[in-house]
Amino acid sequence: MSAFLTLRVLHILLAAILVGATTAITLFIVPAIQDARGAGGQVMAAVGRRGYSAFISSVSGLTALTGIYLYWHFTSGFDPVISGSMAGRVFGTGGLAGILVTIIGGAVVGRNAKKVAAIMEKAGPMADGAEKSALLSQAAKCQQTVATYEKVSLALMVIALVCMSVGHYL
Ligand code: HEM
């Protein structure tokens, strides 16, 4: 198999994992974690300890990198005429949405999920009281930020997916 086909297969496989994981997390896991309040924060911390953050950032980063390679290949080395064609613009728009997903994932979602994990590690062994409830409400705020930006990421992924599915046929 050529390098192009290998990287194309890898890109689609990684994109499928990314969209599937984000759909499950956004629509089911994060709302369930929020419903469970303190216990939910502990689940989030446990998921973090199993390396979810590193896993999903690697999948997202590699989707973007293989995508940039595919875009370079499709435009014969970022040729302005091909990049400016309808297909070039559609792949470009989808690519931009995909790159934003990677940036938001690392800069907002990942950072806030790590904050929740750190807060829960600290609050877990504490006795009930004002200090613990202040920490839990801080964790709930971070969880809300995660929930909001997971939705934004999912919307951007749908844009990327739609653009890439139709790009060759416009
Ligand atoms: C959320 C992120 C992404 C998703 C879900 C995604 C999804 C896909 C899918 C499903 C295809 C196959 C389409 C088909 O065969 O009809 C594809 C192809 C492609 N993707 Fe992505 N992608 C993502 C990110 C990116 C990025 C960041 C770029 C570039 C900057 C990119 C550039 C491309 C290109 C150029 C192709 C077509 C390759 C070719 O056959 O010439 N993708 N993508």
Structure description:
This protein is 88% helix and 0% strand. By secondary structure, it is mainly alpha-helical. The protein is built from 6 helices and no strands. It has one domain. Helix 1 packs antiparallel against helix 3 (52-74), helix 1 packs antiparallel against helix 6 and helix 3 (52-74) runs antiparallel to helix 5. The model has no long low-confidence stretch (mean pLDDT 93). The relative contact order is 0.15. The longest helix is centred in the middle third of the chain and has 38 residues, at 86-123. The chain has helices at residues 3-35, 37-49, 52-74, 80-84, 86-123, 130-166. Bound molecules: protoporphyrin IX containing FE. Protoporphyrin IX containing FE (HEM) is lined by residues 8, 11-12, 15, 18-19, 63-64, 67-68, 70-71, 74, 91, 94-95, 98-99, 101, 157, 160-161, 164-165, 168.
